[in-house]
Design goal:
Elements (H helix, E strand, L loop, with lengths): L1 H20 L5 H54 L4 H17 L18 H28 L1
Helix pairs in contact: 2-4
């Protein structure tokens, strides 16, 4: 019986040594997670390294667009303003009449109003233009702050 136990013991020791040296039993389950996290870390580091230059370029594009939009809106707002030349011309005519005819030629200049009467659609267009200008300038300001 003792030879039988010794042979069984030797067989069990051989099985145990084969299992210990085998890479299939325990190492297979542990190798998947470290490989996954190593691959994930590599991909995440590449993404993070590329993020800052990409974001910097995107902010530059936004800043350029906001600046150009502000210029266009300012030109649009300037074109919607009343022509001050009409009032100036009427006042110059009054000055010439006073110079030529004397003080008796003074007419009532209260009807020379420098304020123009706008239609509702013109008021709405100007309101939207000023809101667009404010938002464009705010966007440019935020882009400059973020870029810093």
């Amino acid at each position: 019986m003792s030879d039988y136990i010794i042979s069984r013991s030797n067989t069990l020791e051989q099985i145990l040594s084969v299992l210990r040296s085998s890479s299939n039993a325990e190492n297979r389950n542990h190798d998947v997670k470290p490989k996954f996290w190593a691959t994930y870390k590599k991909a995440a580091d590449e993404y993070d390294d590329a993020f800052l230059p990409r974001a910097h370029d995107n902010i530059g594009v936004i800043l350029n667009f906001a600046g150009l939009l502000s210029v266009v809106i300012c030109a649009f707002i300037g074109g919607m303003q009343p022509d001050s030349g009409d009032t100036t011309n009427a006042l110059l005519v009054q000055l010439i009449q006073v110079t030529v005819e004397g003080s008796s030629a003074i007419n009532d200049i209260s009807n020379l109003s420098s304020t123009a009467i706008y239609s509702v659609s013109n008021n709405m267009a100007q309101t939207l233009a000023y809101i667009g200008l404010a938002l464009s300038l705010l966007t440019a300001f935020v882009a400059v702050v973020v870029k810093q």
